[in-house]
Amino acid sequence: MPPPDQPRNEALMASMTNYSLGNYVREMMQVMMESVLVEQPHDPLEFLINVLRNDPRIDALDRASRFNRMDLRRIATKTKHLRAIYMHDIVGGHVVGATDVAKDVVVVKLLASHRARQAFPRHIQEIVQAFGANDSPASVTEASFVAKALGVLSKPYVLT
Fold it and tell me: What average pLDDT does range 108-137 have in this prediction?
């Protein structure tokens, strides 16, 4: 808890909540506490370490959460790169304020973007395909560009 004279950091709390929900923290704690209560070990800390390493229920939760897990620092870095790509490569860097760009223009400029290929070499084709899809909106804003691209980047990369 922060001192009474300081406001609570709601953004941090929301990020921590999202991380814990996406990574099954509550379910892992339930498995661990159940094991401790049933076994009642003499050394609970060592016992919990072994539960984390060896319990198949924890392994199953971890496998399920791998596709949801993204480090929050990496999200911030990816968002920074995506905003730079949108402002410099798609819009052109000289426009200030909210700008809508046609999805066809976004696709063409993404294909030509050296910055996008350098930042996301494995996912650039998937990002381009996401904006070129028929169900994609006709115009793209910076916020929608970042959100859709982060959605593509959160999917695991599969070698074909």
Answer: 90
